[in-house]
Amino acid sequence: MSSFKNWAIPRTPVDKKSAHLLTLASFAIPILIWCLVSYVPFIWHPQVEITQSGGVSYFKEGSLIDKEVFQTEVDKKISENPQIDITALPQGTPSNPVYLPAPHEVVTALYTAFTTPPKRNSEPWLHESLAHSITIIAWGFFWAMLFGVPLGILAGTYNAASHLIEPFTEFFRYLPAPAFGALAVAIMGIYDAPKITIIFIGTFFQMVLIVATTTRKLNMALIEASLTLGCKGFRMIRRVVLPGILPDLYRDMRILLGWAWTYLIVAELIGTSSGITWFITQQARYKNFDNVFAAILIIGLIGLITDMVLAQIGKRLFPWHTGK
């Protein structure tokens, strides 16, 4: 019982059992709410799934009709013929809109999306679309790291570099990356290059500022000691600054990788539709929202698993930073 009291004390560590319980609850609570909304009729079922048309021309079996419209037609039938048999009236069951599938439907779609071939031979499988999206993310993030990390370290180490790099970066980071979509297509064509560019723009400028802030947190005494010993310039950055910030830099890259994923859908809409975005767009067009939810969940799962793997790798690489 005492461990539960610690939950309300600011910045007090919880025991391992409580941590596992709270982690489980963080996923269980949203799923429970989703189940309640999907399976309990009186919570939110604004439509009716028609099981019997009752002579109403536009009531088709299996179609979804708003409750108000359904009730209006039932009342109309009763007013026209007060003696009508109740079994002859339109019949239906409470239902949610097509854009909110139930959890079991999404789970089924999650499985069948990988096992069911595309409707057209020219269309890629879902796993092929995912592989293409991951490639876009990887290249965009790679180029952002290649330029963003060195600039951030320079800005965080030297005040002169900070005044040169950060003012424009601060300005540019407020510009929405998708706004450069048309320009990117005009310069680089309609295929993957503009998509990679959007991922780059969306992460690069944030990366420079975050890495600069992380670099400034390095103990100044280490830099002063290196200068006293004659270690200057890029040698100092390579042998003192970079090793000193590496654990925090690794953590920053994990966070920014998640940031890059948030630009994926917008990036893949530029030029020719491709990757997981193409799959989601196609399924939404045909109102297969169970497949849309499944694809969104896949993106979340890939991101979560990737971050968990990177976190475990970080514990192995920097055991002193985690206190183990």
Report on the structure:
InterPro entries: MetI-like (IPR000515), MetI-like_sf (IPR035906). It comes from Thiomicrorhabdus immobilis. Residues 130-310 form the ABC transmembrane type-1 domain. Helices cover 67% and strands 4% of the residues. It is mainly alpha-helical. It folds into three domains: 2-39, no CATH class; 47-95, no CATH class; 114-317, MetI-like fold (Orthogonal Bundle), CATH 1.10.3720.10. The chain starts with a helix and ends in a 7-residue tail after the last helix.
Quickly describe the structure.
Helices cover 67% and strands 4% of the residues. With 324 residues, it is mainly alpha-helical. Strands 2-1-3 form a three-stranded antiparallel beta sheet.
Fold blueprint:
Elements (H helix, E strand, L loop, with lengths): L1 H4 L10 H24 L7 E6 L11 E3 H14 L10 E5 L7 H13 L10 H32 L1 H14 L8 H8 L3 H25 L3 H9 L4 H30 L1 H5 L6 H11 L3 H29 L7
Antiparallel strand pairs: 1-2, 1-3
- In N-to-C order, the SSE pattern is HHEEHEHHHHHHHHHH
- Count of helical stretches: 13
Overall mean pLDDT score? 87
Give the distance, in angstroms, between the N- and C-terminal Cα atoms: 28 Å
Total of domains: 3
CATH H-level homologous superfamily name of the largest domain = MetI-like
Quaternary status of these chains?
single chain
- Globally, the shape reads elongated
What CATH calls the topology of the largest domain is: MetI-like fold
The count of strands amounts to 3
What is the highest CATH level, the class of the largest domain?
Mainly Alpha
The assigned CATH architecture of the largest domain is Orthogonal Bundle
State the helical fraction.
Answer: 55-70%
Side by side, the strands of the main sheet go 2-1-3
